[in-house]
Amino acid sequence: MGLLGYLRGDDLLQREEERSLPAPTAQPSLLPPYSGTPIRQVSTSNVLAIADAFACVRVLADSISTLPLKVYRRIPAGRVPAGDDSRAVQLLNRPAPGSTSVDLVSQIVTHLVVHGDAFIGKFRSDGEIVQLGLLDPTQVQVELNGRRVLYTITSGGQRSEHGPEDILHIKAMSADGLRGMSPVAQCRSALGLNENLRESSRQYFAQGSRPSGILTTPYGGTDQIERVAAAWSARHGGVENMHKVAVLTGDVSFTPIAFSADDSQFLQQRELSTREIARIFRVPAWAIDGATGDSLTYSNVQEQARALVTYSLRPWIVRIERAITNDADLCPGNTYVAFELDGLLRSDAASRSEIYTRALDPETGWMTRSEIRELEDLAPEANPPEPTNRTAPLSPAPPPPPVPVVNVDVHRDGRVTRRVVRDEQGQIQAIEEEEPAK
């Protein structure tokens, strides 16, 4: 069987009770190539042509896709790595030929941020998943049929229905529980305003001969005036001719025109639009080099990086983790996936050294040298020292010293014998009573 038939699952076509996705074909890019043509209506197919929107999506996709995605297995004592023989580990590390986990996660985040949905196709052969691939969200319809979710794919004029056994669906914030809400579709007006400002800026600089002044002449017909205007535009029009020295002859005079208040506020409008788009994608403005109005210091840069992870990245990370973990085909039993955030929250060398010193404390520590070297991506030690036994029981407290006995008085009251123990000062230290055995 050839590779195409292997991926397509030709051997399963005769089994009517089993259904699998068709072979993944070379899909055209979801986004058209960028051109200078202004965008008349912002949509999910052209939103990444807007610089600020592209920057926001890139921050989210690049940050999350570079985090290690680990597969673990729960045990009574905690968790252990699932191991390289786990099917989830193999599929996530190499989801498709020529693809890596970074490519897969980056596509997932891009689809979620732009479309509000990410559909991962589980392509099978002999009933086993052999490949993972993203499906075009615009070609997938979702509906609830009874208690079963159905996914209808329309591609090349053909329709096919599939269930959760074929498609893993990751949703963004949702209003109906079936489809995620696209930030692009919900905030199209704000994105369109940013594009209009960009187009206005392009036109402004393209028409560099915008009158910064007026040429006047006391005489001359229409033809002569047009020749003067054409010569002026040829010499001073366009960005490449800006700020050239103008030379006038004859009775032609030049009257400068000052900038209006609207022109002077154009830059502020661009900055406001950038911050608004950053809010739409829940990305701090500083992450896309937008103006924040705040001065950055070493301490608040660390806090801002932590805020980026907590409020921008973590909501998407949790959605991806839960969706993959809840898929019984990828994570059966006690298997689950988790992103490692230590790389993004990594502190400076001095802070880490202080934390590791506390972690190695013989009495209150919680780590070993080997664990710390693994976190620092260092090779294991050739002769590691013996780990400190932090669980050794404490030495028993010494028994109290015996009471010095100086005098013992014995009294008999009927059948009861009473002994009174006194110290050197005659103080009673103990009274003991005994009854004869019956």
Number of strands: 14
The helix fraction, in percent, is: 25-40%
Q: The biggest beta sheet, please? A: 3 strands, antiparallel
How large is the radius of gyration?
A: 38 Å
Terminal CA distance: 97 Å
Strand content: 15-25%
Average of per-residue pLDDT values: 77
Structural class: alpha+beta
Low-confidence stretches: 1-19, 26-36
- Helical stretch count? 12
Elements, N to C (H/E): HHEEHHEEEEEEHHEHEHHHEHHEEE
Main-sheet strand order equals 2-1-11
What gross morphology would you assign? elongated
Structure description:
The chain is of the alpha+beta class and 438 residues long. Among the domains are: 212-256; 402-438, no CATH class. Helices cover 33% and strands 20% of the residues. The chain contains 12 helices and 14 strands. The strands form 5 sheets. The chain has a 3-stranded antiparallel β-sheet. Strands 4-3-8 form a 3-stranded antiparallel β-sheet. A 3-stranded antiparallel β-sheet has the order 5-6-7, with no helix packed on it. A hairpin with a 2-residue loop joins strand 12 and strand 13.
Give a concise summary.
This protein has twelve helices and 14 strands. The chain has 438 residues and is an alpha+beta fold.
Layout of strands and helices, then pairs:
Blueprint: H1 3-8, H2 51-65, E1 69-75, E2 78-81, H3 87-93, H4 101-115, E3 117-125, E4 128-135, E5 140-145, E6 148-155, E7 158-162, E8 167-171, H5 183-186, H6 188-206, E9 213-216, H7 222-236, E10 253-256, H8 261-264, H9 266-280, H10 298-325, E11 335-339, H11 349-359, H12 369-375, E12 407-413, E13 416-422, E14 428-434
Antiparallel strand pairs: 1-2, 1-11, 3-4, 3-8, 5-6, 6-7, 9-10, 12-13, 13-14
